[in-house]
Amino acid sequence: MLDISIIENAIKEKINTFEVRVKNEGSHYEIIVVSNDFSDLTPVKKQQLVYGPLTEFISTNDIHAVTIKTFTLKEWELQKKLL
Fold first, then answer.
1. Strand, coil or helix: what is 69?
2. Are 61 and 55 in contact (CB under 8 A)?
3. Is CATH 3.40.50.1370 the classification given to domain 4-77?
4. Rounded to an integer, what distance in angstroms lies between the CA atom of residue 20 and that of residue 36?
5. Which of 3, 40, 64, 71 could anchor a disulfide with 76, C-beta 3.0 to 4.6 Å?
6. The whole model's pTM is what?
7. CA–CA dist 78, 5 (Å, integer)
8. Which strands make up the sheet holding 66-71, listed edge to edge?
């Protein structure tokens, strides 16, 4: 099983983030990334930006399944108010 901090650090090395949350849900990982690098990107481009640092782990089956949620800082602040 891949340590969550390894995934977090891989993302932080490639994306200018405000926050990265990784949750191991047994059979898959849930990842939340907050970055203004997502501004003006389509949802597909946002996903691709996060998948980039994870390709090594996916290709070795260290990550089998992943759910990715992306937010700009402004979107994240609004999202937190709704929680």
1. strand
2. no
3. no
4. 13
5. 71
6. 0.92
7. 26
8. 19-24, 29-34, 66-71
